[in-house]
Amino acid sequence: MPKIIISGCNGRMGQVVTRMCSERDGMEVVAGFDKNAVKLSTYPVYAEPMEFSGEADVIIDFSNSAALEPLLAYAEKRRIPAVICTTGHSPEQLEKINETSKKVPLFRSGNMSLGINLLTNLLKKVSAVLGTGYDVEIVERHHRTKVDAPSGTALMLADAVNSGLPYDAEYVYERQSVRRQRGDREIGISAVRGGTIVGEHEVLFCGPDEVIEFKHTAYSREVFANGAIAAAEFMSNVKEPGLYDMNDVLAGKL
What we know:
There is one protein chain. This protein is an alpha/beta fold. It is built from seven helices and twelve strands. It has a seven-stranded parallel β-sheet, with helices on both faces. Strands 8-9-7-10-11 form a five-stranded mixed β-sheet, covered by helices on one side.
């Protein structure tokens, strides 16, 4: 039975993960971390990770980037694998994740949806065929309270397209500040923020006389929680330090 810690347990995603874990046999949430250390479920909640010394097999992190350093320090000290679901990390924080992964197993993905990760794998193949003759544009839409833009998922999709190209593409964010014709090696990325949109991502391959579109829409936060739990189940059995992602989780299914 995997014993799970949820970081950011009192937030919207933390509560969704809590509920979904409670509905699954053989899964137990043993503690939560949250700056608002109020007990909302059956498990104890701590403002600081180091306050919890009980047994755990894996951490699911749906807090925010500001909580990263204490969480990594805890995971390293306790040798507990962590599934990092937050986005918007600085380059320095990403480097810290890489360094910590050399000592303890860490999982990181720009999006926890299984569908998005399958789309990422598909885009790598599509761009290898169409990329040089087609202009690629990515449009992402999220709720009005999302802070980072573009989303981590949009960047993940752009990286997937870029990996299939024979050259390094230039990422162009929006276009109001760029007064020139579109370049041949650009990937355009645009962000929309409004209402309660959970998450929408479109990737357009625009070629001569045709447009090929790939779209993913998340209708609830459960799709991200489901992916996070699948990653947690996988990581609870990982002993070797390293930086893992959804490709490792899906490897046995593709």
